Amino acid sequence: MDTVAERHPIFETGPRLALCALLQGADWVEFATVRDLIGASDSAVSKHSRTLEEAGYLEIRKGSVGRRPRTWLRLSPSGRTALRGHLSWLTGLRHAIDSPGDAASPVTGTADPG
Predict the structure, then answer these.
(1) Residues 19, 35 contacting (CB under 8 angstroms)
(2) Which three-class secondary structure state does DSSP give residue 90?
(3) Residue 65 belongs to what domain range?
(4) Per-residue confidence (pLDDT) for residue 109, from 0 to 100
(5) What pLDDT, on a 0 to 100 scale, did the predictor assign at position 20?
(6) pLDDT tens for each residue of 32-63
(7) Is residue 104 part of a domain?
(8) Three-state DSSP class for 96?
(9) How far is CA 13 from CA 2, 64, 66, 101, 111, in A?
(10) Contact at 8 Å (CB) between 31 and 68?
(11) Which domain CATH number covers 44?
(12) Where is each Winged helix DNA-binding domain found (predicted)?
């Protein structure tokens, strides 16, 4: 399946991109693990995960282990697709910066006439 390079502004907040990058290679990841690996506070992870969930990019499951409540996160299929598209767009942007006369514009998809 080809990935369509497309800018997704929702990923342009550092913690959201980090959160999604962490989750893209996993199934369910416990909230505390996400928090620790991206180096964000509980409230920041909660806020960003809620934004991603409302966009349909993240799934949240709540339960318990013993008597302790737990929350797990994972990217939804549409979240994985959107993240791949955004990363592809960023790669195109990087190529345009590295060779401005040779690459197609990641924004318009056309070569720079200059």
Answers:
(1) no
(2) helix
(3) 9-85
(4) 56
(5) 96
(6) 999 999 999 999 999 999 999 999 999 999 99
(7) no
(8) helix
(9) 25, 30, 35, 29, 28
(10) no
(11) 1.10.10.10
(12) 16-91
Amino acid at 21: A
35: Cα separation from own chain's centroid: 15
Strands 58-65 and 68-75: antiparallel
As a whole number, the mean pLDDT across the chain is: 88
Which residue stretches of the chain have pLDDT < 70? 1-2, 100-114
List the beta bridge partners of residue 62: 71
Give the residue carrying structure tokens 């994985």.
80
Check: CB of residue 82 under 8 Å from CB of residue 49.
Answer: no
On whether residue 64 sits in a domain, the answer given is: yes
User: Is residue 101, in this structure, part of any structural domain at all?
Assistant: no
Q: Does residue 107 form part of some domain?
A: no
Residues counted in the chain? 114
Supply the pLDDT for residue 113: 47
Quote the tokens at residue 23: 């989750």
Please choose, from the candidates 42, 69, 83, the residue with its C-alpha nearest in 3D space to the C-alpha of residue 61: 69
Number of domains present in the structure of the chain: 1
